[in-house]
Amino acid sequence: MSSSSSAVEAKAFPDGTTDYVPLRNKKADLNKVHISDTPMTWSNWYKHVNWLNTTFIVFIPLAGFISAYWVPLQLSTAIFSVIYYFNTGLGITAGYHRLWSHTSYRASTPLKIYLAAVGAGAVEGSIRWWSRGHRAHHRYTDTEKDPYSVRKGLLYSHLGWMVFKQNPKRAGRTDITDLNEDPVVVWQHQNYLKCVIFMGLVFPTVFCGLMFQDWLGGFVYGGILRICFVQQATFCVNSLAHWLGDQPFDDRNSPRDHFITALVTLGEGYHNFHHEFPSDYRNAIEWWQYDPTKWAIYAWKTLGLAYDLKQFRANEIEKGRVQQLQKKLDQKRATLDWGTPLEQLPVISWDDFVAESKNGKALVAVAGVIHDVTDFIKDHPGGKALISSAIGKDATSIFNGGVYNHSNAAHNLLSTMRVGVLRGGCEVEIWKRAQFENKDVTYMNDSAGKRIHRAGSQVTKVSQPVASADAA
Length: 472
Ligand code: HEM
Ligand SMILES: [Fe+2]
Ligand SMILES: [Fe+2]
What we know:
Oligomer: single chain
Protein name: Acyl-CoA desaturase
EC number: 1.14.19.1
Transmembrane segments: 51-71, 78-99, 192-212
InterPro entries: Acyl-CoA_deSatase_haem/ster-bd (IPR009160), Acyl-CoA_DS (IPR015876), Cyt_B5-like_heme/steroid-bd (IPR001199), Cyt_B5-like_heme/steroid_sf (IPR036400), Cyt_B5_heme-BS (IPR018506), FA_desaturase_dom (IPR005804), FADS-1_CS (IPR001522)
Function: Stearoyl-CoA desaturase that utilizes O(2) and electrons from reduced cytochrome b5 to introduce the first double bond into saturated fatty acyl-CoA substrates.
Bound molecules: protoporphyrin IX containing FE, fe (ii) ion
């Protein structure tokens, strides 16, 4: 950590977060068991609660709802509150999140000051604290080090992680040197409480008071309740966006895409995309998807206030989508019966094949693979006679058009009847088929009974005879 950052740490205002560890107690803290590491009981639950955070996100909003009962809502105050809601929301989504946490674009100083100011008005901690946690969330998604892991429960990821104390030593570490070098970030962090009180409460109260003579309404609706709605909306990025919707790009972790989440969070709802391409200034890539944060950033760009908007190439985005589709397809494939994998079949000589066919087993060779059609003869859609005529013979050409060009379904059905590989059979055909059925096949038994290892069409290794390998 740079010296400038430790200066920030020392001067920082305790913004009610796990960010701040009083320096005088650092030594003692090292040996002390953190409250979050002890089980919660009836006698100690209040020690688990982060009362400052709880005041900001639970008690004050509650007080707002109660006082709203006595304070009439004027139309002009309501309109102002909605507009201010969007501004403070953008402070979080376009500022805290896309600009500072992910550097997905660069902003001119006036825009930065605006975003830092309205972001403070959303009352969600300082930029520095918020972005540090958010970077840890991306780096350690769904793990113990994810500060708001949805694996600990939906409510935990929404609110619980702030309501209950967290052990700062357990939070994942991330690089925030760039933030410590940003004077706007540092100033806002050091003056956080002043910023919150001014932007969160004083500004809406004074604005509504002076403009519409509605001081109380400005305080209750433009201040407290608007804060509550912005908080709840943006908290949904941590909860709902990891719980509701589809995973078109990757399903290893919890992030999901959903229109409803996007609607609530000013466009942050395309969260599966966002975790794959976090430094893209967009969360929604289609024009018809709802992402007002993206629109705002784009508008600022046209006004010359924002620049260097980062965007992943469509080619990279499509690759992710195709791979996820492929993964789903492979999972589906794996549930189906494709017959005994070719590489596991015994190698049978032509003479043995003919001899066994004469001994009452209905064996038919197609493309170097021997099939037992005994139970299928009576069901053959082309009739008993035709299929019987191929017993003990190589039916490759008659099966593939000589008499009748069988469908893909017939090829699939044929695979389920396979019992052996013909020594001296058409090895390349068999290999192609093996790869068609299972792209993970890396070796096959060749016609002479050797195990041929391949990567694509290249032979990489020939190993011991199959007979001895199978015996082992
Ligand atoms: C070796 C195992 C065989 C299997 C598993 C098999 C499977 C099938 C299947 C599933 C069909 C339904 C239509 C289609 O999917 O194309 C079919 C139709 C047919 N098969 Fe085979 N077949 C076999 C061997 C043969 C042989 C050796 C001949 C000819 C010598 C033959 C001649 C036909 C003909 C002519 C039809 C068309 C029937 C019609 O649509 O009227 N099949 N077979
Ligand atoms: Fe996330
Ligand atoms: Fe993010």
